[in-house]
Structure formats: C-alpha cells, structure tokens
Give the backbone structure.
Amino acid sequence: MRGPGAPIGRRERSKQDKRERIRDAARELFALHGVGGVTTQQIADHADVAIGTLYLYAATKAELLIMVQNQKFATAIDDGLAAASTATGTIDEVLAVIRPVVSCLREHVENGRTYLHELIFGDPTEPYRREGLTLAARLEGGLATLLARDQRINPQDAGTLARVITAILHLSTTATVYMDRSVEEILADLGEQTQSILAQRHRGDEVRRLG
C-alpha cells in the first residue's frame, strides 16, 4: 500500500492523466454545446482516448456531466460560505451562500438542470452522484449553521428551514417555467420566500409566547 508521502506510480499517473483529460474534454464540450448536444464518442475523441477507456471512468454521459459539475458545485459552495462570513443579517447570509450556487447552475441552464435532476433521480450509490449528494448535504448543513445563529431559530428548526430553502433553490433552477429567469431574479425570489418563511415563523413564536 502506498504511504502518504510515497510517489505516485506510473500506472496511477497514467490513470490520473486520462481521468483529467476526460473531465477537461467533457467540461469544454458541455460548456460549448450543452449535455444534449454532445456524445460520449465526441468526448472520447476530444480527450484522445478510446471509447472503452472513457467508460472505465464514467459509464454514461450523465456521469460525465456530474463529474464536471461536482467540481464547479464544490467551488461555488466554498465561495458562498466564505461570502456569508462578511454578510450582515440572516437573509443576506442565506443569499450570500446561495448566489455562487445559482450562478454555477445557471452558467449553462441545460447542464445545471440536468445535473440536479440526475443527482436526485439517479442511482445514489454511483460514485459521482454520491459525491454530488454529499456536496448538496454540505450546502444544506452550511445554511442550517448560519440560520441557527439567529437567536429566534432553534437548531432543529434551522435544519428544516435549510432543507426548505434548498428545495426552493432546486425548483427555481430546474422548473421549465423558470428557465428564462436571470440569476438576480432567482435570488430575489429566494430572498422573498425565505423572508416570508422566517416572518411567519417569528409571528407564530410570538403568538405562542403571548398565549
């Protein structure tokens, strides 16, 4: 077994190189043509690997898309959580986290919609989907943590509210009726809905306290 500081062998370097070439080729072609306008053979040709080799790293075009989008999704979550640390107020913190994620998903509408659809409805045991679902859980957890900092929200409710916000995010970025919405329009809607949810909760707490 290779130790933490041991050099990577030739075979492992070759595998890593092929994986990166395939991922880079898929990223470039998906960005240019969308997932629906590209074939796995085109990606294999662009990566300069045999189609059989490509299938060793991703069995379907959907898995290739998830491989590519996971990397972007992870960066967007990192950027959002960092931005939230300088935001003021619960709503602004939520939108700071969400903004890079929405921008990532709307960079290419077809790719973003397909990515979320595949994460939710695909095989959760497939490695790339499992990684994507882990990232989604990280986003939800980050939202729950910042919501819990609001003294009016207890930790259990913060987790539920974070799940509601991510569900709104999913609907806003995948529903056909919202396909033409800009990033700013989606964020404005998310902000309004989150504000409404929090206001209703706070009113309910006040009623229970007075009762």
The mean pLDDT is 91.
